[in-house]
Design a protein that fits this description.
A hairpin with a 7-residue loop joins strand 5 and strand 6. 8% of the residues lie in helices and 45% in strands. It is mainly β.
């Protein structure tokens, strides 16, 4: 529900969610794959809804996305199957690989959700691809300049203006009962562009930012409830995010 509010769908109940999905079907496109159907709704604000149906037309899953301006190259190393639906899926990747055939030459590994995973052709790994990456904020702080940003941190442990921690990978390889990787990250970065967007379907506003962080650009979307005002270009943001990406090639 909170991810939906980050793109202007302020949903509080299951009934409101069902109504939203039914309304999105009126103008959505249908994409058939061997395991079922994606129902893809695109709002003029950039907000996207990806509803999943099985071959009998029954609801089996759902993911939001936002079609933004970010572009970055990542080295895809493997696909991670979803646990909730046959149409779910994530990619494990390395950001900003320096060498074509060496993904670990990148800045860091991370995981991102792919709302249209089963639309993609079978891939060879590792493979460098260009993606558009959206970060849905769960908490967000912003600072007008570097002095304010560094002044807000503990003196003993300070994060750079452009930093990225893939917290969804922290439990990997710890023991046999490890949890599956998750598309979560904590990062900071510099705002390149920012706008108040209006969701055409609902009339609700949300914040969009194009942010430079370690490893490349990312589109950040946030509910207007998460911060007092829109972060201006050249300000610095920091927060925790759920990551959703789509391959552009």
């Amino acid at each position: 529900m909170s991810d939906l509010s980050n793109i202007g769908f302020n949903i509080d109940t299951e009934e409101e969610f069902v109504t939203l999905i039914e309304k999105s079907f009126e103008t959505a496109s249908q994409i058939e794959v061997p395991w079922g159907f994606y129902i893809h709704f695109v709002d003029s604000s950039g907000a996207e809804l990806w509803t999943q149906l099985n071959l009998d037309g029954e609801f089996i899953g759902f993911h939001p996305h936002f079609h933004g301006m970010s572009r970055r190259v990542v080295a895809i190393t493997r696909q991670i199957e979803g646990e909730d639906s046959e149409l779910d899926g994530m990619f494990h990747a390395w950001a900003n690989p320096a060498e074509l055939t060496e993904p670990e030459s990148g800045d860091y590994p991370f995981v991102f959700n792919v709302p249209d995973m089963k639309v993609l052709d079978e891939m060879d790994y590792p493979q460098n691809v260009e993606i558009q990456l959206t970060a849905f904020a769960s908490d967000l702080e912003f600072y007008p300049n570097e002095d304010d940003y560094y002044g807000s941190q503990d003196e003993e442990l300070q994060f750079a203006v452009e930093s990225f921690m893939p917290i969804g990978l922290f439990d990997e390889d710890e023991d046999e009962n490890e949890e599956a990787p998750e598309p979560f990250a904590v990062f900071s970065g510099v705002v390149k562009q920012s706008e108040v967007r209006t969701n055409e379907m609902t009339g609700e506003e949300f914040y969009w930012m194009l942010v430079d962080t370690l490893g490349g650009e990312v589109d950040v979307v946030a509910s207007t409830d998460l911060c007092e005002s829109l972060p201006n270009p050249l300000s610095i943001i920091q927060g925790q995010f759920w990551l959703s990406g789509r391959i552009l090639d």
